[in-house]
Amino acid sequence: MSWAQVFTENYMVGFVLLFFRMAALFIATPIFSHQNVPVSIKAAMAFFFAIFFYSSMPPLTIAITIPTILMAILSEFMFGLAIGLILLLAYNVITFAGGQISFMMGFSLASAIDPQTGVSMPIISQFLSLLGLMILLAIDMHHWILLFIDGSLSKIPLGGFLMTPNLFEYLMHATANMLLVGFMIAFPITALTLLSDIIFGMLMKTMPQFNLLVIGFPIKIVVSFAVIIATLTATMLILKTQMQDAFNALGMFF
User: Fold this and answer.
1) DSSP 8-class letter at 215
2) What gap in Å lies between CA 182 and CA 104, rounded to an integer?
3) Nearest residue to 96 via CA among 192, 193, 28, 181
4) Position 185 pLDDT exceeds 70
């Protein structure tokens, strides 16, 4: 690419579309979309990566008119949001499981603002979410996403992404999988909690002076925390597998 080509109309419009592809990435995908990162920093990072990947950008194939450019910008946003939604459904496995665990432990009302999504969620979900974020950084998920974007430039032309029936079918399957795996992660604590409720009910029938609020709830909380600690490694391995499967599913775009 010569310096004269850089400032031609095709490459200038291509750079704008590449910037919007990177901006959608920083809006929707886990890790990059962290709410504690200011919007100005996200925009600066999107601009930097647009410059970084500019040399590998293929020539623009769309007609340069205002309607086609607007449709191309919308297409780039849809591409980034589709990537983010697929990865987010896999990541939300642990936050959904954390909500179920918090409910069984009696921590449903103990919520806080999650720095990853900016929404209020139970503290167990927030703990698992932050731990899962560190797992994603440890397996270089952020590098995988950037490499995928680099590879997509040659496979999906700028402004050429279209929603397909396969994508909607996969999103429905991923949503059902999120619920199923989330219940599976929370099942040990759910089962032990139900078992403890049965035991406490039997104790209250045989010993009416047994105070469930004073004795029963602390025991349930201690047992639940012990199970969380014992199953934490398996939970993170499940998250890693779910994220890897979701990332491999991004190949449907090519």
Assistant:
1) I
2) 14
3) 181
4) yes
Q: How many domains does the chain have?
A: 1
Q: Tell me what percent of the chain is helix, strand and coil, each rounded to the nearest 5.
A: 75, 0, 20
Supply φ then ψ for residue 250, to 5 degrees: -65, -15
Q: pTM, whole model, 2 decimals?
A: 0.81
Residues 6+ apart with CB under 8 A from 243: 87, 90, 91, 136, 139, 141
Q: Which residues, in sequence order, are bridge partners of residue 120? A: 113
Angle at alpha carbon of residue 237, lines to 195 and 88, rounded to 5°:
95
Provide the domain limits for residue 40. Answer: 3-253
Strands 111-113 and 120-122: antiparallel
- H-only helix segments in 53-164: 66-105, 123-138, 141-155
220-249: per-residue pLDDT in tens? 888 888 888 888 888 889 988 998 888 888
